[in-house]
Specification:
Blueprint lengths: L5 E6 L8 H14 L3 E6 L1 H4 L13 H10 L3 E5 H6 L12 E3 L1 H13 L3 E4 L1
Parallel strand pairs: 1-2, 1-5, 2-3, 3-4
Helix pairs in contact: 1-3
């Protein structure tokens, strides 16, 4: 059996209409504390809002994301999803990078081929 060393977490749901963003952040912390290399991909027109800097409301997602980043959890934002809502790279929380759709597709293949963990919410 393959040892799981990496976790790829994908979020597509809207920030303020679902518990999925908070679950993704909690899962990412949990897996990181278990010693896994964690990557969070936010995609789709509503999911990418999680990566937008200076969001208002509760919970304080920006701070939670920064805490995750301090633990070495990586965040990527789908460029296509962001472009659909007119979000620019400079609007992202510092440390979040754009990723192309084909790169996400390739990562899914890689993680599956390696027997690694993939979670979609």
């Amino acid at each position: 059996m393959t040892e799981v060393t990496k976790a790829l977490l994908l979020l597509k749901d809207m920030v303020y209409e679902s518990t999925s963003p908070m679950e993704i952040l909690r899962f990412s912390n949990y897996y990181c504390n278990k010693g896994l290399d964690v990557m969070v991909i936010i995609f789709g027109p509503m999911g990418v809002i999680l990566g937008k800097a200076d969001k208002c409301g509760s919970p304080a997602y920006d701070e939670k994301i920064k805490e995750c980043m301090e633990l070495s959890i990586q965040f990527r934002c789908c460029k296509l999803g962001a472009s659909i809502i007119g979000m620019k790279e400079e609007e992202l929380i510092p440390g979040i990078e754009f990723i192309e759709s084909h790169e996400i597709a390739e990562m899914l293949l890689e993680y599956c081929r390696e027997g690694q963990l993939v979670v979609t919410l």
